[in-house]
Amino acid sequence: MTRLSSQAFGLPRLRSFHxxxxxxxxxxxxxxxxxxxxxxxxxxxxxxxQRQRYERAAADLCGGCRAIxxxxxxxxxxxxxxxxxxxxxxxxxxxxxxxxARLERLNASITAGDMEEEEAA
Length: 121
Fold this sequence. Notes:
With 121 residues, this protein is mainly alpha-helical. The chain has one domain (6-30, 46-120). Helix content is 64%, strand content 0%. The chain has helices at residues 6-9, 11-24, 34-37, 48-62, 68-86, 99-120. The chain is globular.
């Protein structure tokens, strides 16, 4: 399996990422509106200006967050599992990134993992 599986990170490490995000994440501060990180509607594929605004909003929301690296790694593990097992694409803002940016990285990781598995066989 590719490096996206939760086994690659290990459950204790994933828990530590989650705990750090809960402690230091800007999205978990009192008064933070969860709807800002999970907009109901994401821009379509051809809506370049909307996508740029969404990406700026992601960068602004998460800019300066001490837990941004852990958030990205946790998103990669969780969303990678959901994508591999159920075909669910990423949604919302995580780690300062829009879902399509994370999806591109997930797809690249899956493809690289598949290539590594083929070479090993």
